[in-house]
Amino acid sequence: MSQVIKFNDQPQIDRGNGATTAPLFLKENGARSFISGISTFKPGVSVPVHSHNTDEMVIVLEGKGECEIDGVKEQVSVFDTSYITAGEPHCFRNTGDEDMKILWVYASLEVTRTFLDSGITVPHLSPEDRISR
User: Fold this and answer.
1) Residues 6+ away with beta carbon under 8 Å from 67
2) Which of 18, 75, 91, 106 has its Cα between 20 and 30 A from that of 37?
3) What is the pTM of this model?
């Protein structure tokens, strides 16, 4: 079903440690081939190194930070875009003085996150899928 999502009408999910996520398109609201959302990270907040069961694209919308993919770190800022293949360890860190917002798009309706440090796999955006671990 085609539709427009109003960002300000979306729930903000507290991901812990100064990170929030606003889901945009999910299977539950009609997405048929991908899911997407916007995550906001306060200054100094980082996502633990993890991987997914599907490819991911991330675009920095506001702020600046660091993207680490398979151990390689690169500075990122507004409109820088990353493509991360399924199973590739990666993370994002807000290294700036302002909030960093990213748009994420996963190439599947069923997404999992596997935390590298523990090997634990959780459903994406589930209560167990926390930024602070």
Assistant:
1) 58, 73, 74, 76, 80, 82, 90, 91, 92
2) 75
3) 0.94
pLDDT tens across 92-125, in order? Answer: 999 999 999 999 999 999 999 999 999 999 999 9
Q: Which structural domains are found in the chain, ordered by start? A: 10-122 (2.60.120.10)
SS3 66: strand
**Residue 40 to residues 29, 32, 70, 119: CA-CA distances in angstroms?**
21, 25, 22, 25
Cα separation, 128 vs 118, in Å, equals: 13
Q: Which of 45, 56, 40 is nearest to 17 (CA)?
A: 45
Q: What is the pLDDT of residues 37-77, one digit of tens each?
A: 999 999 999 999 999 999 999 999 999 999 999 999 999 99
**The pair of three-digit structure tokens given for residue 4, joined into one six-digit string:** 């427009």
Amino acid 104 reads W
